[in-house]
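LAB NOTEBOOK - FOLDING QUEUE
OPERATOR: T.R.
BATCH SIZE: 2
PURPOSE: Compare the predicted structure-token outputs for two unrelated chains run back to back under identical settings.
PRIORITY: normal
REVIEWER: second-year student, initials M.K.

ITEM 1
FIELD SEQUENCE / FIELD STRUCTURE:
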Amino acid sequence: MPLPRPAPGTTRWWVIGVLGCVSAVVVIVWWGIVSTTGSVRPEVTGYSVESDSEVLVKYDLHRPEGVAVLCRVSALDSSKARVGTVEDAVPAAGPTSLRREVRVRTSVRAVTGVVDSCARVPTTP
């Protein structure tokens, strides 16, 4: 059974609707690419609770070439309270993707390690 054809005289509105949908998809894709290009992205790859007072956090850092980054790495207890924090300064020299290992001293036993944030360090001219 063939699909019914649009009513006569509505072809123009079908064309406008299709073009509107296509242009919306193009704008969404463009916005996604523009907003993520050149961003600093950390990805936690693992952690290990070394003792009651220390956690080892491993993460991959993806950044643009030649950008210095400052990351805040934290340890959390079972109630998700922050029990230790370290700032990890990554110099501008080096590859765009690198693996980091950070030891976080804690006040009580932690159950996990996270990267809270990573931000570009402003360069001085």
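ITEM 2
FIELD SEQUENCE / FIELD STRUCTURE:
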Amino acid sequence: MEASHNKGGFIENFFNLKKHNTTVRAEAIGGITTFLTMAYILFVNPSILGDAGMDKGALFTVTCVAALIGTLLAAFWARVPFAMAPGMGLNAFFTYALVIGRGLPWETALGIVFVSGVTFIILTVLGVREKIVNAIPLSLRLATSAGIGLFITFIGFKGMGLVVSNPATLVSLGHLSTPTIIALLGLVFIVVLETMKVRGGILIGIIVMTVVGMIAGEVALPESIISVPPSIAPIAFKLDIMSALDLAFIAPIFSFMFVDLFDSVGTIVACSYEAKMVDKKGNIPKIGKILEADSVATVIGSLLGTSTTTTYIESASGISQGARTGLASVFTAALFAIALLFSPIVTIVPAFATAPALVMVGIYMFKNIKEIKFDDLVEGAPAFLTIILMPLTYSISNGLTFGFLSYLIIAICSGQVNRISKVMWVIGLLSAINLYISAIS
């Protein structure tokens, strides 16, 4: 660590570099590292939301801007070394569960994201957000992450052409075409890079697969490398809030809330421990402001035209390189701003190059399944149902619904009602409403 600090200047006073035993150089390295490990979202988010019928060029610009704004909120409002961007899993829920699965216009789906974001702000200000998460059994929280991981892995395999529909068996192995072979080799390449702790392994893998696709004649060369960012007009401020307020959409709003609750709080806790931002009692003094920034970023993102914006676990990579304050997030945000100029490269990236990234993210989301106590069936059985029903019903919402309801029913029938918190009773009621609405719609 460098001995010199920027004493007396604005940066030192605002970010308290000396107090956090860090320097501008250390923060810069940390911020750049975070960007490299999460930059894959610039390719993947437009690919996923593009399947919902949204303009991919506009999505690239909005993804950059949403990440820029969210990360700056983390930098200047919460003053933490965290980065934000449209969340993986949440974007899949937006496209494949709401727009494709339920046939909703993407404008209405954006309205649902907006309503969930406003609800988040209210819950955060009232201090309810953390209480909701703590009221849900750890096994179901872990199962939610694992189930989403399995769900987006399934989507990734479809994008690779490895898994295709079959009228007799529902799914089967696809034809090993050139794009599928490139994707499979790319997946192995990404796993090896991640195993070797190479920074930006997923991003490197996407770039390499795109180049190989060009050589194989599967991808067209870009007409230029740098250009003015595509206009956001096709998707910005197109959200339909009034339609989203329909009672039939309580369940999707509910699902967005819970998925983001688990995702953001889990990420914040993990990164806070890594950055030594936890006090002796295990509390995170800044968690209120971090959650506020997360909530506001979601609302702004929905107005611009993207799914829920959330805190990224990849922030831990920058923290591991020395990031300790919001200054690191300023550097990360600056790189998202620079990335706006490289839209020609992003728009040529094919689905078979981004699909392996989904599988890799799915692996990371699934890894904590080992923490679930499956020998305790009161929690193990609902956790299993949550995990398996997300991909099999092609719905995160359905997985959560059956998980919550089965937990309540099994606990009641086995005489262990004392395990159910008051908040879980309310969650169970909302889950029952969700199931009824899904059944009659």
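REVIEWER COMMENT (ITEM 2): Residues 1-7 have pLDDT under 50 and may be disordered.
FOLLOW-UP: none requested
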